[in-house]
Amino acid sequence: MLGKEIIMRELTAIDLDVDNYEQVFGIMGARFLEKGYVNEEYLPTIKEREAQYPTALPVEPYPIAIPHTMATAIIKPFIAPVRLKNTVEWGDMSDPDNKFNVKLVCMLGFKDPGEHIELLQILMYNFQKPEWVNPLFEAKTEDEFYDAFVKMEWTHD
Amino acid sequence: MAVKVIVACGSGVATSQTVASKVNRLLAADKIDAKVEAVDLKSVDRYLKDAAAYITIVRDKKTYDLPVIDGIAFLTGVGQKQQYEKLVKAIKEYKG
């Protein structure tokens, strides 16, 4: 199983100043491509997939989006923790007619169809813990944000 | 034979398999003889014919002949207990 090393410091961003979720893909997608994590398929496929199957989840206390796309677009697996400057509307995974105001985005790039099952469960387990989530919103620098993010428990129930 | 439960999401990959894995673990812990299978939304109707319940990720406006369970609850933990109880009831009442 993959470990915490796939949470990438160089793909961590805070206060990303965007007006909509597509801009998140544009900015972060360019960084993933430049650093060799994805190929050219990433940006078009993630946009298409998100439009068709949105990925914001109503975890409490804050909704979190987990955009991901097909394995063939991924070169190196990663988790990219991103905090936006302001919330943007993000489609609800469970209901095509609903949207959430999302500030925390966990961008996922998985290659092996098996590995995401464990990882998604680990993420979900942590998303439900205010003691892990709150510091993510309070972090003042990218380093603080990253440090808070990697403190997640690498387990699930 | 184990009772069949179906979970479907858009791609049949990430989310539905994650939910299937979690629910299978809950059922095994409670020694309930049922198996959750993740399938592609496009082919779901075929699988529902001999299933005890349908766990949805994306809510739709269709009506089904079998109990429908909210799968997002198993991802977020919000309302999970109620959805799990509903699922267990559906499995126990399933006549095949």
UniProtKB/TrEMBL annotation, chain B:
GO terms for molecular function: protein-N(PI)-phosphohistidine-sugar phosphotransferase activity. Residues 3-95 form the PTS EIIB type-2 domain. Gene3D superfamilies: 3.40.50.2300. The keyword Ribonucleoprotein does not apply. InterPro entries: PTS_EIIB-like_sf, PTS_EIIB_2, PTS_EIIB_2/3. The keyword Transferase applies. One of its GO terms (biological process) is phosphoenolpyruvate-dependent sugar phosphotransferase system. This is PTS system, galactitol-specific IIB component. The lineage of its organism: Bacteria, Bacillati, Actinomycetota, Coriobacteriia, Coriobacteriales.
